[in-house]
Amino acid sequence: MKRINKIFALEITALILISGSLGGMFVFTDIYDEVEARIVSVLCLSCVKLDPVISFDWHLDKNPPSFVLESLDKTGPVFIMYSTTDACTNCEIMEPIINKFFNVSYNKQNDFTKVVSINGTDITFIYVNFGNKAEREYRSSKDLYDINKIGELGGFPMFTTITLMNDEGTVKPYYNTLYGLLDPDNPEQRPIILSRIINEAIQFYKDNREGFRVDDFR
Amino acid sequence: MKLQIKRWISQIIFLISANLGALGIKTGFCYPFFYCNACPAATSACPLRTIEIGVYKGDFKWRMITYPFLVIGTVGILTGRAVCGWACPIGLLQRTTGKSARFLKRKIPIFKKIGNLKIERYLRYIKYIVFIGLVIVTTIFIGFMFTDICPTGFLVGTIPILALYPGKYMPNEFFYIALVFLILFFVLIFLVERGWCRYFCPVGAMLAPFNKVSFLYVSVNKKECIHCNICSDVCPMGIDVPNMNRDPECILCGKCINACPKHAIQFKRIKNETNK
Q1: Mean pLDDT of all residues in chain B?
Q2: What are the pLDDT digits (tens) for B33-57?
Q3: Could you please report the per-residue DSSP string of B160-199?
Q4: pLDDT of residue B46
Q5: SS3 B201
Q6: Which residue of A36, A50, A119, A145 could cross-link B169, Cys pair, CB 3.0 to 4.6 Å?
Q7: Contact call for B169 and A53, based on CB within 8 A
Q8: CB of B206 closer than 8 Å to CB of B69
């Protein structure tokens, strides 16, 4: 009888401690929102053992956000890198390659913007981290540029490059979105592919900058 | 209503509630059982993935580590491993394959022998090694995570995504390894009843110790027991039921309770006994 009472006391104590701590976490921390935003609402590519198929096509940017228009008008092409702080294997592989190419370093805890010069052309580099409280406009740009619509599953692109292109006589913003690893089977090709895309974007921008009227898109 | 019908209903309700993401319901809760948040219809987070994110490459995020342990701890203290038997969707899958394993055990002597081997009880410790080794240690030191090769992730995440979005995804470096594990997973659960729960489930490893202190447990009245061993024979976890005392492997499915001819086995809450 005494032993049973001891077990009962132990159970009650453990329940109060554990469930009390859990309740405390819900009340005093944002763990619920954090888990929802970082895990449940984001497609975990490593959990599904898949990489998105890469598309090198450029697409018309039908509804460019204001920060993109601003940069296209005043600076040059725009490069947006999407990332998360949480155990994202592909991000960890691609980030050093991208950071080396653009010669940037930043604290992953915050958004980061810098104008960098590549082959004499200014490019606006933007780092957006979904694991943190990214600016709303940056965050929602992911949906605009998610050409494969993996956002429906909670996924997000690795990066987007936005430039200018002549579309039947009118210069318009165009973008190219890539997901996951560039060329998963050939790691040495990744910086080469990245360089090719950026140089293509620079060339398109140079060719079409003169005909771009930003007010047409506001 | 019969206990096992109640259990079917409970398992189906939990299966549906684990997949309410199909209706757009995404929550910030952790599943207290083994299910994957990469399933397109997932409602909540996998507790293992949450821990992995919390410890990834030694970058400790204590809230992420603590949260799933507290969720599992609360459920564990209340019901022990009853979630394995009454709520887990992978448990439900194994319930459906259990008949095949039971048939093989009865008809093919080698399977019966395997079940009776002394080493079998030690194989049950593999799940603790999987939990500590692949969910925690390798994640901290080399960034390799159990969920990279998790067969459930493949079953409820990879396959539906490939079916829903054909041509948009290609295999990553762990795809084929995980596929092999999925095939082995199915072979295992068809050959050994509740084989995954017994030997490999890391969430089962988290829940198992709570059987020792849970409010709800299965109790055997040893004075009335005639040691006919019918209970052990029907037990899907292969427990020696007449001699068990809050066994960490017990999933509280209640099959032994139904089978006992002397009604010597009961669900007990500690309160029942203290009142006696």
Answers
A1: 92
A2: 999 999 999 999 999 999 999 999 8
A3: HHHHHSTTSEEE-TTHHHHHHHHHHHHHHHHHSTTHHHHH
A4: 96
A5: coil
A6: A50
A7: yes
A8: yes
Question: Residue B271 has what pLDDT?
Answer: 57
Residue (of A176, A178, A158, A171) closest to A72 by Cα position:
A171
pLDDT tens sequence across B197-255: 999 999 999 999 999 999 999 999 999 999 999 999 999 999 999 999 899 999 999 99
Residue indicated by tokens 């209640």: B254
To the nearest whole Å, the CA of B98 is away from the closest chain A CA by 27
Rounded distance between C-alpha atoms, residue B139 and residue B65, angstroms: 12
Q: Which long-range contacts (CB under 8 A, 24 or more apart) does A120-125 make?
A: A121/A76, A121/A77, A121/A202, A121/A205, A121/A206, A122/A75, A122/A76, A123/A75, A123/A76, A123/A77, A123/A78, A123/A79, A123/A198, A123/A201, A123/A202, A124/A71, A124/A75, A124/A76, A124/A77, A124/A78, A124/A79, A125/A79, A125/A81
- With beta carbons less than 8 A apart as the criterion, state whether A105 and A126 touch: no
Query: From start to end of A65-180, where are the E strands?
Result: 78-83, 112-118, 121-129, 159-167, 170-178
Phi and psi based region of residue B150 (left: phi greater than 0; alpha: psi -120 to 50; beta: remaining): beta
**Contact partners, residue B99, CB within 8 Å, separation at least 6:** none
The C-alpha atoms of residue B250 and residue B80 are separated, in whole angstroms, by 8
Is the predicted pLDDT of residue A150 greater than 80, yes or no? no
Distance between the two ends of chain B, CA-based, in angstroms?
27
10 Å CB burial of residue A174 (0-12, 13-18, 19+) is buried
How many Cβ atoms from other residues are within 10 Å of residue B142's Cβ?
A: 9
Q: Read off the pLDDT band of A175 (50, 70, 90).
A: very high
Closest to A134 measured CA to CA, from A105, A107, A112, A161: A112
Among the partner-chain residues B38, B50, B213, the one whose CB lies closest to the CB of A7 is B213
Interval A160-184 mean pLDDT: 88
Any B CB within 8 A of A48 CB: yes
Q: Does the beta carbon of B44 lie under 8 angstroms from any beta carbon of chain A?
A: yes
Nearest CA in chain B to A153: B40
With contact defined as beta carbons under 8 Å apart, do B171 and B159 qualify? no
**Considering only A62-76, A124-138, B60-74, B120-134, which range has the smallest mean pLDDT?**
A124-138
